[in-house]
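Homework help thread (please don't just give me the answer)

Our assignment gives two proteins as sequence + structure token strings and asks us to describe the second one. The first is just a warm-up. Here they are:
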Amino acid sequence: MSSENEASSSSPPGQRLSCTPCFDALWFCYSPVHQMQQYYRIGVLDNCSEKWNDLFDCLKLKTKRSTEAQEILETRKKATPHIWTFRTPEEASSNWKEIFGHLDDME
């Protein structure tokens, strides 16, 4: 949904929702460049199911009234968590020890 949300949130209200970015992302997902990147990074080819879901969601939103679609998009945007999670120093310390504590044992 990220490409759909970006496309719709950047457009002014009253403008029609475009599914072109979702379709372009799906098209690129099946490209040899993307598939080889995924295979190199993860070890498996991408089945592009997330891109298909984004395209279907966008097409479903286009069947709704523009005010209703705008409300749905705003609700989704508010529901997505922020990219950064803030921790207290104690939480950060315990998380660091949990992830990298085994390195202290090597010394």
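The one we have to describe:
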Amino acid sequence: MGKGDKKTKRGKINRGTFGARRPRIKKRVRPETKIDIEKKGTVKP
């Protein structure tokens, strides 16, 4: 159980892989990036 073990977190870090023991951290989308303040909606007459 250590660096050579495929199933442990330390082994995943050593190999540079991901899995159930070391899932990838997903980037969260910030609300500021979704809404553009610069863009203004056009008003229909």
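TA reply:
I won't write it for you, but here's a hint about the kind of observation we're looking for: The two ends are 71 Å apart (CA to CA).
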